[in-house]
TrEMBL record, chains A, B:
Keyword Cell wall biogenesis/degradation: no
Name used for this protein in its record: TetR family transcriptional regulator
Domain HTH tetR-type: 20-80
InterPro entries hit by this protein: Homeodomain-like_sf, HTH_TetR, Tet_transcr_reg_TetR-rel_C_sf, TetR_C
A molecular function (GO) term: DNA binding
DNA-binding region range list: 43-62
Keywords of the record: DNA-binding, Transcription, Transcription regulation
Annotated source species: Micromonospora sicca
Source organism phylogeny: Bacteria, Bacillati, Actinomycetota, Actinomycetes, Micromonosporales
UniProt xrefs under PANTHER family: HTH-TYPE TRANSCRIPTIONAL REGULATOR YJDC, TRANSCRIPTIONAL REGULATORY PROTEIN
Stored PROSITE patterns: HTH_TETR_2
Amino acid sequence: MGDEQVAAPTKQRRISQRGIATRERILEAANRLMFVRGVNATTLDDVREASQTSKSQLYHHFADKQELVRALVKYRGALVLQRERGGLERLRSFSGLVRWRNALVQANSLNNGKYGCGLGSMAVELSDQDEQARSMLLETFAAWEKLISDGLHRMRDSGALRQDADPEKLATGLMAALQGGYLLANAAHNVAPMEVALDMALEHIKSFLSEPSGEPTR
Amino acid sequence: MGDEQVAAPTKQRRISQRGIATRERILEAANRLMFVRGVNATTLDDVREASQTSKSQLYHHFADKQELVRALVKYRGALVLQRERGGLERLRSFSGLVRWRNALVQANSLNNGKYGCGLGSMAVELSDQDEQARSMLLETFAAWEKLISDGLHRMRDSGALRQDADPEKLATGLMAALQGGYLLANAAHNVAPMEVALDMALEHIKSFLSEPSGEPTR
DNA sequence: CACAGCGGGGACCAAATAGTCCAGGAAAAG
DNA sequence: CTTTTCCTGGACTATTTGGTCCCCGCTGTG
């Protein structure tokens, strides 16, 4: 009867700069810790200590641990996609793919193959445990693969790749090789298997390159 | 001074049939539960309940959770290797590889891609957490890859594969594609990415098959 | 049948860990 | 400057979970 609220005001909470910074600090700490120890093996107390915050802040910014983890999935996904956009957005040639491969290998070799892929390891840990996290990770993988397949499409359009190349499948295969490579490298504490895996995938893509000159073999 | 024991009697515990059966029951339950929920997300109470045993039995047969997990790594590794030996021991042709691929895909499609590889998911969860488990998993992966590379060696020796094929690298690439495929299939709850990944790896191996007739292209 | 030692049930304990609360301080709005 | 709302510190609670203990039963052996 009284003043009904039209177009619900959403109870918009004011948010201060300091609050944003704290939230960011928590996420950043969770990101680091859960990268090296895994999600389930990291406690909120670890995060609290590493982020120099207190319990109440954790629960002020995140409803519970699950929410923190989900926020981390989003956070890490954004990081990876941003990084990958840099390396793949202008991909137009096979040598660009090789450079991309080298960058990933070099980054992973800095920790001797340890820890694996920030996205892949979360996918393994969370897929059977948090449906929402799984679906976010799935989307992120899709976006990542799309960065690759878009590049491959450009290569096909420019004639570098043959018409019978399937950019989507090639991208999926490359992503699988990358993730499998991360996994084996992590188990071996050695980046070598990841190199072999990526090289296999690149070799496979190479087999779809147009003949530089001369008529096709068949 | 007194009666020093020569050649320590090892305090050999008698072990009854019933004891063996209980231990097996525990391992089998842990295997099932940790396969679907993950290792860290499975509690000892879950295992106790699922195996119809009691706390004291768990600790009678395993020193602590870590030991149980390590025993599971061994147990599961033995299962996988046994299964794979069946499919790979007589591998002599490319079509054999295809059959092997189909069997894996079909098995995984029964759960819509969920849960991933029993070995791979443990590798992700444990590699950064239990050095001993990691090294056992590493050995198991090596043995698994060797089953593959042995088959490829046979194919090369028989002339099916060209001399410039590198069985070890091909096996590593195939294993990475498999593991990456499992991972993506798990995230997607769909076996399709695993198929694409395995097909890529098989296609790559195919490119090393000897020309059935006619002279080599180059 | 008696005895030794393994196997088992389940209560109990202790530590770790998630989650709550409230008072006080900082920052934005009026 | 005053008021309101947000942000923070940190003590406190509840629950989960790994791990211990004790006592009894079973089983095989002499």
